[in-house]
Structures are given as C-alpha cells and as structure tokens.
C-alpha cells in the first residue's frame, strides 16, 4: 500500500488528470517549500532535535518529490509528507534512545527560536519554526520523553494531528488495535508525568492556551533577575517552580546547573546568586519553544555570543518552570556561540576577588 493511499481521506481530491499542465516553477517551488516545512514539523515533534529534523526533512523530500515534483497520483501531499517524515523520524528515534539514555544530565529539546532579532540570524527553516511556535511547547516535548518511540508516534499522529488509529498504525507498522493501545498508554503516561489527575487529555499542554500576560511577565522577570531583586522574583515564581538545565556535559563547571532545582525560594536564590557572582551576561526576551522565553548572551567584554536559551512556562499568572539549554551542540543553529571557558574564568576571578575582600575585611 502506498503511503498516500493510507493517509488519504475519502474527501481528499483524486489524482490530477494525466497530461494536465504542470504548475509554474515558482508555484511548484513554493509548494515544495511548504511540504518541507510539514516534514520538518513532523520530525521535530518526534525527535526534539533541530539538526536531526532538518536531516529527516531533507531525506523525506527526496522520497516525496524525487524529481522536483510530487507524483500526480498522490492525493494528499501534506499527509503523504507527514507519513514519510514520521516513518523516517521513528527509525531515527529508535536508534537515538540509547544515546539519550547515556546523556549527561537532563535532556531537553534543541530550542526553536522564532525571533530573528533575538538570535541575530534567521531560523534554519523560518516557515516550519513559525508553525511549531503555534503547535508544541518545550514543556510538551519534555513530557513526550517519557514515551517509547512507537508510543510517541501513535500519540502525536492521533492526539495531536488527528489521524485515525488505522492510519497511525500503517505509519508505525502495527495493527489498528495496537496503535490504539499505544496512544492510550502514551496519554496516561503524559498525564501522569504532568501530574494531571483530572483528565486523560493533554490538550491543555499545547500552546494556544498560553497565559496572555506571559510575555509581560518574562520582561519583568528579566528585569528582576538583572537587578538581583529577590523579592520581586519570589512574587513571580510559583511555589513549585522547577528550573532545569541542559549542559550535556559540554560546559565548564558553574555555568549550568547539573540537576533540577525546585521551589520558589531555591530558584530565586539561584538566579540572584548567579548575578551576584558577576556573571558577564545579558538577558533578552524571545520566543523559545513556542512560548515567551529568554536568550542569554555573553558581554562583549569577553567576545559576546549566545550562552543559552530558556523556555518559560507560566501557570496561573506565575512562572512554573524554566527549561534552560546551555549545551553548545544544541545551540549552533541559532547564533554565534559564546566562549564558555572565558565566561567561566570571569566567574572564577570574581569569586577569588570576593574571597580576598572578605579576608581583608576580617583582618581589618
């Protein structure tokens, strides 16, 4: 069975008549660019990796339009592209599970930043990134990490994209009953990990229900953090706020947290302490992972460059989670990177200076 046959719905228009005039090249190029965005989106949902999603999208397009055009008998090009990309991504994810299980520290998705002003460079795939900004958040992708590759595919295809279980089963390579069970099990796992006991649905985890004041809250959070205003931070953080950092074992000590920090006071003190340590950095508001977030840049005194990104989750008018990615390997697609060794050296020098001042004070 062809992929497009499995994915086409009864109302999908049939194939174009043989011998019809081909669309102008500009229209064809635009259509192919749109399909590549569909492929990227499907792959990123599955993998949480911009680099891998780009590779999958390229591979998918070689199969969807090997001669620069989609075959005339493909009745639903977008569904066909989603099918192909999801199948490729599923294979990639199965092989990547071993690597993720041995990952150093917390694993977070590679960030998507839709604000070109904040990054200083356009996104890898602006159209796909814009689509994802309205689709899945960083927090949601983190929840999906609790699933097996097959559960993730079944859940995304059915619960997020609205595919019938029969069609999802064909993509995954299983029976309709098995696909239904995979999606059901995935739904329970996601709800359990999120702590939602009221509903088996996870629709509230997707963007679109974002707090309308989230962007303003992030701006105030940046100001309070920069000023070291712990009282203001305590007012903005929820009681059970969690801060997670992903350095991947690729950053100098002291640059990123190695395990999650939870609790309003603990997170506030961590943020203020980082500023008081003399961190040569500045914070800029940006859309990160589809929600208002933060880009951290090194001061020009040490060469500038991107240090990391933070996706900010807002619940009930307060910040409930901060997901920070500092691993350089996950940031290369965004902007020129900071010299983290130089950044860490400044922190060490500041710490040594404060210790010396403290000793002199005791002697005096």
What does it look like?
The chain has helices at residues 3-7, 25-47, 50-64, 77-101, 116-119, 126-133, 138-144, 149-160, 165-172, 176-194, 214-227, 230-236, 264-276, 340-363; strands at 237-246, 261-262, 281-288, 291-298, 306-315, 318-325. With 364 residues, it is of the alpha+beta class. The protein folds into 3 domains: 1-7 and 25-102; 138-206, Arc Repressor Mutant, subunit A (Orthogonal Bundle); 214-357, Nuclear Transport Factor 2, Chain: A (Roll). The protein has a 6-stranded mixed β-sheet with strand order 2-1-6-5-4-3. Strand 4 (291-298) and strand 5 (306-315) form a beta hairpin. Helix 2 (25-47) packs parallel to helix 4, helix 2 crosses helix 6 (126-133) and helix 8 (149-160) packs across helix 10 (176-194). The chain is elongated.
Keywords for this structure?
Arc Repressor Mutant, subunit A, 364 residues, 13% strand, alpha+beta, 14 helices, 3 domains, Nuclear Transport Factor 2, Chain: A
Secondary-structure blueprint:
Blueprint: H1 3-7, H2 25-47, H3 50-64, H4 77-101, H5 116-119, H6 126-133, H7 138-144, H8 149-160, H9 165-172, H10 176-194, H11 214-227, H12 230-236, E1 237-246, E2 261-262, H13 264-276, E3 281-288, E4 291-298, E5 306-315, E6 318-325, H14 340-363
Parallel strand pairs: 1-6
Antiparallel strand pairs: 1-2, 3-4, 4-5, 5-6
Helix pairs in contact: 2-3, 2-4, 2-6, 3-4, 8-9, 8-10, 9-10, 11-12
């Amino acid at each position: 069975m062809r992929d497009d046959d499995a994915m086409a719905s009864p109302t999908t228009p049939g194939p174009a008549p043989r011998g019809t005039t081909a669309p102008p090249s500009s229209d064809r190029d635009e259509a192919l660019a749109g399909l590549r965005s569909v492929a990227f989106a499907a792959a990123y949902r599955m993998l949480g990796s911009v680099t891998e999603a780009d590779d999958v999208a390229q591979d998918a397009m070689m199969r969807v339009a090997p001669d620069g055009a989609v075959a005339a008998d493909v009745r639903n090009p977008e569904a066909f592209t989603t099918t192909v990309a999801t199948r490729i991504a599923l294979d990639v994810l199965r092989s990547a599970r071993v690597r993720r299980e041995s990952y150093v520290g917390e694993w977070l998705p590679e960030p998507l930043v839709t604000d070109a002003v904040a990054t200083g460079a356009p996104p890898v795939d602006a159209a796909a990134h814009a689509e994802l900004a309205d689709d899945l958040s960083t927090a949601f992708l983190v929840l999906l990490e609790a699933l097996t590759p097959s559960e993730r595919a079944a859940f995304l295809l059915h619960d997020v994209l609205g595919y019938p279980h029969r069609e999802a089963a064909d993509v995954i390579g299983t029976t309709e009953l098995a696909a239904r069970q995979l999606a059901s099990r995935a739904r329970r796992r996601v709800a359990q990990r999120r702590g939602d006991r009221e509903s088996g649905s996870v629709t509230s985890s997707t963007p679109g229900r974002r707090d309308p004041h989230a962007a303003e809250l992030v701006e105030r959070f940046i100001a309070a953090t920069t000023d070291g205003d712990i009282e203001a931070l305590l007012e903005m953080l929820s009681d059970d706020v969690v801060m997670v950092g992903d350095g991947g074992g690729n950053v100098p000590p002291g640059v990123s947290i190695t395990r999650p920090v939870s609790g309003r006071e603990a997170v506030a003190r961590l943020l203020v302490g980082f500023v008081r340590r003399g961190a040569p950095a500045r914070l800029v508001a940006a859309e990160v992972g589809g929600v208002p977030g933060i880009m951290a840049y090194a001061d020009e005194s040490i060469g500038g460059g991107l240090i990391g990104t933070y996706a900010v989750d807002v619940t009930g008018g307060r910040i409930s989670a901060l997901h920070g990615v500092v691993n350089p390997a996950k940031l290369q697609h965004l902007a020129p990177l900071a010299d983290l060794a130089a950044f860490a050296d400044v922190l060490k020098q500041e710490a040594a200076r404060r210790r010396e001042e403290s000793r002199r004070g005791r002697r005096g």
